[in-house]
Amino acid sequence: MLLKTPGFDALVTAAAERARTCGLAADAIRIATTLDGKVPEHVGRAALGLRERLYVELAESQDAGFDAAAESGGDVLLLTETGKLRVCPEGSRPAERDHVLGVVKWSHRPDSLARAWSTAGDVQRLQFEEIARWLADQGTERVGARIDALDHALVHMAPLLMYVGEERVYSNLGRFANLPGRSLAAGAPGSLLTALRQTPVSHWPAEHAAFVVCLHALISSGSPVRAEEFNGVQLAPDQVITFLEERVRAYGQTVPDLRGEPTGERLDRLAGICARRRQELLRAGTVFYRTINGVSLHKREQIMAEPVTSAELPSRVAALLCDTAGLPPVPDAGADDVRHLVEAAVEHLSSAPAPAGFTTAYEGFLHRFFTTVADATHSDVAMGRGPKSVAALHSAVPAAARGALATRDFYCCVAPGSSFAHRFDGDRDALARALSAYSARMRYNTWHYLPHSMSWTEEIPGRDDWFFAPMMPDLTNWSDQHHTGHVAFGVRHALRIPLGIVLEGRYRPGLYDLRLMRTSGAEYQLADLRTAIAVGTVQAMVHQAAAERQLEIHDFDNVWYRDFHGA
To answer: Rounded to whole angstroms, how far apart are CA atoms 156 and 151?
Structure first.
């Protein structure tokens, strides 16, 4: 079965081709801003600069026509290689890699359009220049500290791609990269931040100053991954202020009146309020989660309105626990009842014989658990990752030995749902290759998060190749566009529930996780996420009980997948 998807470049090309068939500018704009329905429209429109937003609103309100023959003269609409709609006024030249969509045809071109376009450009420029002057006044040391904070955050998080103005792109993603990340190391000559560190702010383009101040405010307003909430959109000072004020209100606080303060000061103060209040909510038990559009990489923090309870655990998963523990079902089981079931089940597994195909009974249970979860949630695949042995993570182990842990020291148990396995039509080797590929990537993820999960990031000797450990659940749709593995193996819709355990008296976040995945079909919804959180709560209990009994994992490497699922 072919799982590979065409990927992002092909998606942009296909959207451009569809937009060229439109007779109305409004239709072409909608297709371009949503990449033909794959990006939420409000996200695609938020990528536009101030002049562009004004222009498309006028074109839509005037029912302007559209002609794919760009040589006919007029203002041209473009789709950039990053997937952003651009307005190219008549006489301007598009970038070489931009997809030319066509020309806007006005029945009555507004007399005010040229003036409005110019005024909007002046407003945007003045906004950037004001924040640039403020940043320059902060002094070299404080500017350098901001750049250092950005350097540190960017190399330890997922890809970013955002805009300041109509043409400036800031990213650490693949060929678009001008920031540190997977493609560029912190301090590398090709990094924009390296160049800015060596240049007085007064010599920067004003957009760069806006980028530095706004991104620093975002990473200071909570977890550094807050920056991902501006993926695919404008990182403009007024929009960041609006965003932070909305977060303050969502956290139950009153927004202070800071209108008399410089923009940079407003951003810093709002970021501080957000960070403090978010920590208070976390300590009080508030559950945050993120919704993610995988095409634009746009992520948005949400707050779970009601707590997830054990009543939302799928009945098949509860039945599996009872069967493993050898106990009868518990009607209306509460959290304590579920914990008792888990303890009894893991205690039984610690001395039970191993089923065929597995080294231990515990490993056999994990595979059965994820198979049950996949079918109960109508997922193609369910999986969970973690360390093979928690003993290797104890503080008594020398730092050099802990730092030398490799991906082979971690596992990911991947189980196919029944319908997914049937789709391979008996090609067991192809199924084994797909499951093994999912597992290999997740083993790498545990290794990648480990220093942050275990608070080893400052250890010497240590390693700098790590990402911030995930802290909150994610609901992702259309994620099979950018990531090479996601494209190759069709990871289209996914749920991720980060899980941790207490080890040596400290909670270790993101050491484990639960992931559910669909290669096609319906997108996951909030109800699916709540179910996954209920399952993840049980799974975390299982990992905690197993760690306390020093149960180890030996299966779930590439050889195991070939032997267990292959021909």
So the answer is: 9
The answer to whether the CB of 6 falls within 8 A of the CB of 259 is no
Dist CA 154 CA 181 (whole Å): 6
> Do the beta carbons of residue 86 and residue 80 sit within 8 Å?
yes
CA contacts within 13 A on the Cβ side of 247: 28
CB 124 within 8 A of CB 49: yes
DSSP secondary-structure letter at 148? H
Nearest Cα to 310, choosing from 544, 542, 540, 535? Answer: 535
Distance CA 278, CA 272 (A): 10
Reading the chain (567 residues) residue by residue, the pLDDT tens digits are: 567 667 889 999 999 999 999 999 999 999 999 999 999 999 999 999 999 999 999 999 999 999 998 677 789 999 999 999 999 988 777 777 899 999 999 988 888 899 999 999 999 999 999 999 999 999 999 999 999 999 999 999 999 999 999 989 999 988 899 999 988 888 889 999 999 999 999 999 999 999 999 999 999 999 899 999 999 999 999 999 999 999 999 999 999 999 899 999 999 999 999 999 999 999 999 999 999 999 899 999 999 999 999 999 999 999 999 999 999 988 888 899 999 999 999 999 999 999 999 999 999 999 999 999 999 999 999 999 999 999 999 999 999 999 999 999 999 999 999 988 888 888 899 999 999 999 999 999 999 999 999 999 988 777 888 999 999 999 999 887 666 656 655 788 999 999 999 999 999 999 999 999 998 889 999 999 999 999 999 999 999 999 999 999 999 999 999 999 986
Q: What's the CA gap between 55 and 539, in Å, rounded?
A: 51
Gap between the Cα atoms of 270 and 265, Å rounded: 9
Answer yes or no: are the C-beta atoms of 165 and 208 closer than 8 Å: no
Single out the residue of 367, 298, 398 nearest to residue 556, CA to CA: 367
C-alpha to C-alpha distance for 436 and 528, rounded to whole angstroms: 25
| DSSP result, 515-554 | EEEESSSSPP-HHHHHHHHHHHHHHHHHHHHHHHTT----
| 52: three-class secondary structure by DSSP | helix
Q: What pairing do the DSSP bridges indicate for beta strands 288-293 and 298-303? A: antiparallel
Which amino acid does the sequence have at 414? Answer: V
Beta pairing class for 381-387 and 410-416: antiparallel
Burial class (CB in 10 A: 0-12, 13-18, 19+), 126: exposed
Residue 108 CB burial class (10 angstroms; 0-12, 13-18, ≥19): exposed
Say if residues 462 and 456 touch (Cβ distance below 8 Å): yes
- Contact between 17 and 68 under an 8 Å Cβ cutoff? The reply is no
